[in-house]
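Figure S7 source data.
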Amino acid sequence: MEVQFLEKGPGQTRFILRDSHFSFANSLRRAMVAEVPTLAIEEVNFYENTGALYDEQLALRLGLIPIQTDLESYVPRSKCTCENGCPRCQLSLTLSVEGPRLVTSGDLVSSDPKIGPADPRVPIIKLKEGQKLVLEALARVGCGRDHIRWQPVVACGYKYLPRVKVSKENANWERLAEVCPARVFAPEKGKYRDENACTFCNLCIQAASPPGSVTVTEDRSAFVFTFETDGSLPPEEVLQRAAEALKEKATEFKKHLEANGKA
Ligand SMILES: [Zn+2]
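Tokens for the predicted zinc ion complex:
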């Protein structure tokens, strides 16, 4: 197995996974979506809300704000020794604003100076003159399998590694560069801009002159992964933690097999 990064966040991250199988690629994708813990707002105590939105609507919006996650300092509530929440299992964020103004995630004041909302520009509500919003939000560690608010990645997917071949007989390279929506071909003859960007749309095959001078195949043992993080965790950490989650599952399975295999 081999991993090669093509692009690394903060926006999109792309990497190639070689010498693997689609069952593993899909397990990795699912682990990235559902098994990597992050911090997200789970409980909101409203002290004053005279704006246009109900408490419930605001709480839903707050829950979807990505929070920078420090998994060395925070543990899930279920793994904490406290009873009613403590600084190890929850992060308190307070908000106290008065209109007229647009309230954004940047107005949330975190009790931990190291972490807070991943992006200060997420709109929460627009307050009119005299309207007030005072609340305390509690962020806790959770996983995407329990609720989407804890999902660290968006648009996480993969495809087989494309292999685009243009034979020597081909006489219309410029046309190929023109028709390809993924911009696989560079304008200069014989040069590729990004072969891995191919989406298997086959427009180059249809445009090829003479016909048959372009072939596109997929390498079924290699995968091009693409994902974006919501800013709660760096892309490398998402991947590492997803791999750890898979390892943990395999170890647990093995343990059960050994225990029951003896009977
Ligand atoms: Zn605790």
